[in-house]
Design a protein that fits this description.
This protein has ten helices and no strands. The protein is mainly α. α5 crosses α6. The chain is elongated and about 70 Å long.
Length: 255
């Protein structure tokens, strides 16, 4: 698992070089704009709603003494909760809406690196609408799974000592589902929905590695939100294509 995660991390090394060589930047303009708008919306939501959520949390403090400091802490916690849940929603919405632009990027990378994979007998031809529907289906599925796992971890993260375990787990869960969505832009051409899900489950370390950098980039104000999709999707495409090539070598009779 650790080796796979490291491979997913290292796949980012040549992302900018590959984007420039294949002149992929025009494909990213709309996704970058979508990403920026959703990112700004989340920060405004955290700023505007943190007081309300903080007052709700503060009701748990029934004593008069220390109520003001607790309310201040609760407000910060409210902002943190909105940011975490907001970025979970952000990932899946942005990745789903970007599918018609990201799939062609992945396809160009495939033709450049592994033209032998781009075979008419194994390559699924899909329209922009089909790519969007497929991506919505994948990301809605992942959204429900991620929220179902993240909310208990988020609650446990407020408990001292326990949070040393649950906080990193929360980050890795978010990373996994980010990498999942990025890898599916390539898998969409090769696998049906259920086969794609099975493929990523078997290779979850690569998805986590890709998602770690994805999540880390979101901590860089403005620039990170703008560049996260171009570099993450490029990195995920190279990793996924390499896995598909290795699978083709192992199972040539199925090709």
């Amino acid at each position: 698992m650790l080796k796979k995660i490291l491979t997913g991390l290292l796949s980012y090394r040549d992302s900018f070089k590959l984007i420039n060589e294949l002149k992929l930047w025009p494909f990213f303009f709309v996704p970058m704009a979508i990403s920026l708008l959703f990112g700004i919306a989340i920060f405004f939501a955290a700023y505007g709603l943190s007081d309300h959520l903080g007052r709700f949390f503060a009701k748990a403090w029934v004593w008069e003494w220390g109520s003001k400091p607790f309310t201040s802490i609760a407000t910060w916690l409210g902002a943190l909760v909105i940011l975490i849940l907001g970025f979970i929603l952000y990932k899946h919405l942005v990745m789903a809406l970007s599918a018609p632009f990201m799939s062609p990027v992945s396809e160009r990378i495939e033709k450049y690196l592994y033209p032998e994979l781009h075979h008419p007998h194994t390559h699924r031809k899909t329209s922009n609408t089909q790519q969007l529907i497929r991506s919505l289906r994948i990301n809605i599925r992942n959204l429900f799974y991620e929220i179902g796992i993240s909310i208990p971890l988020l609650i446990l993260s407020f408990i001292p000592v326990v949070n040393f375990v649950t906080t990193p787990l929360l980050f890795f869960v978010q990373a996994y589902y980010a990498g999942f969505g990025n890898m599916d832009y390539t898998l969409e051409r090769h696998y049906e929905y259920s086969d794609s899900v099975s493929f990523i489950k078997k290779n979850k370390g690569y998805a986590i590695g890709n998602g770690i950098i994805f999540m880390a980039l979101l901590f860089i104000p403005v620039v990170g939100i703008i560049l996260v999709l171009p570099v993450a999707v490029t990195a995920a495409s190279t990793t996924t294509l390499k896995l598909l090539k290795e699978q083709q070598i192992r199972m040539p009779h199925q090709q």
